Amino acid sequence: MEVSRILIGLGLLLVLVGLLWPVLAKLGFGRLPGDVLIQRDGFSLYVPLATSILVSLILSLVLWVVNRWS
Fold first, then answer.
1. Is 13:62 a contact under the CB 8 Å cutoff?
2. Which candidate, 13, 50, 10, 45, places its Cα nearest to that of 30?
3. pLDDT tens digits, residue range 19-67?
4. CA torsion 65→35→33→58, rounded to 10°?
5. Nearest Cα residue to 9 out of 50, 57, 65, 55
6. Which domain holds residue 28?
7. How many independent structural domains does the chain possess?
8. What is the pTM of this model?
9. 40 strand-pairing partners
């Protein structure tokens, strides 16, 4: 039962992020100062370092709060 609740919660979180993605993109989410973008002729490399750290911190906070409530 516990795993199913976590999976449902993560699914709902993904749906919410998907719905809010246009708003998040306008705020600069995904193009933070620590993200690396290398563009050459016929080649493009995007490494979202700062975005990954921010997402990790937010998910850690959400999971910590969920763990405290249960």
1. yes
2. 50
3. 988 887 787 777 888 999 999 999 999 998 998 898 899 889 988 888 8
4. 0
5. 65
6. 2-69
7. 1
8. 0.63
9. 43
Give the three-state DSSP class for 9. helix
The DSSP element (H or E) to which 24 belongs, if any, is helix 2-26
Amino acid at 11: G
Q: How far apart, in Å, do the first and last CA atoms of the chain sit? A: 12
Strand ranges inside 1-70, DSSP E? 36-40, 43-47
Q: 3-state class of 32 per DSSP?
A: coil
Q: What pLDDT does 18 receive?
A: 85
47 in helix, strand or coil?
strand
Of 53 and 1, more confident: 53
User: Which pLDDT score, from 0 to 100, does residue 32 have?
Assistant: 85
Both tokens of residue 17? 């992020």
